[in-house]
Amino acid sequence: MKYFFIFFSIATICQACVKNEREQIDIIGDKSFFPLQVGRFLEYEVDSIYYRQGTFLDSVHTQVREEILTQSKDSLGEVYIILRSNKKRPDQPWIPSSSYSARIIDQKAIRNEGNLHFIKLIFPFVLNQTWEGLALIQTDIKFDVQGETIEPYQNWEPFKIKDSSHAEKIGTFSFNEVVTVLQTDEEDILSKRFSVEKYAKNIGLVYKELSILDCNTNINGMPNSCNSLEPWRTRATKGFIMRQTLARHN
Q1: 178-187 long-range Cβ contacts below 8 angstroms, 24+ apart
Q2: What is the pLDDT along the chain (250 residues), one digit of tens a residue?
Q3: Report field, pTM of the whole predicted structure over 0.85
Q4: How far is the CA of 89 from the CAs of 65, 66, 245, in angstroms?
Q5: Distance CA 225, CA 216 (A)
């Protein structure tokens, strides 16, 4: 009986070691979907639709470039600084617009966009796993979008690994391994919040879609009907729809 107990204990320890080793391998592999290296750049085609004061306002096409410029360390560890630049036509020069930062802490991929810290990914990937992607930001924060006040992050669902490690064609690229993160998909009569991001192995973010739409029941003192039978493209009175697709990378 004593020998059986010893054998059982050793077997249990060995299984735990194998599990931990496999988990470490998964974590290392999954982190390649959020690569951080000075000199890396990603360029995107971005299409946006804006609404204001109850009507369709504008449709805008821009090109966006994000390049990791520097790496430094602080009390939390390594952090990478990203320069974001824009232009409207291919023949124009890139115009710097803002700087972001990105890092991995405690198996979480965190990206700081305009002083908003999003927990983009957690490692290792587990299908249908959820986490509070907005845990580090104030969700009732308000923004001015084309002259309208919007609260884009209220009532978001937990982030979720919707699909993991599948092949997918995005834009002009065909990727063998893509992870899809559904960040939220919530709507009622007065608001719609939808956000999804796709990451490719050894590249990073390759696709993003974001819909932040509201329907006001009163516009300039006049009553407005927010008919739930109408599609959001005609019901929306303020907000935007944005799609960002990878066009070039190194």
Answers
A1: 178/206, 179/30, 179/33, 179/121, 179/125, 181/120, 181/121, 182/157, 183/133, 183/156, 183/157, 183/159, 184/156, 184/157, 184/159, 185/157, 186/155, 186/156, 186/157, 187/232
A2: 555 555 455 555 556 555 555 555 578 889 999 999 999 999 999 999 999 887 777 899 999 999 999 999 998 899 999 999 999 999 999 999 999 999 999 999 999 998 999 999 999 999 999 999 999 999 999 999 888 899 999 889 999 999 988 999 999 999 999 999 999 999 999 999 999 999 999 999 999 999 999 998 877 766 787 877 788 888 899 999 999 999 999 9
A3: yes
A4: 13, 16, 16
A5: 8
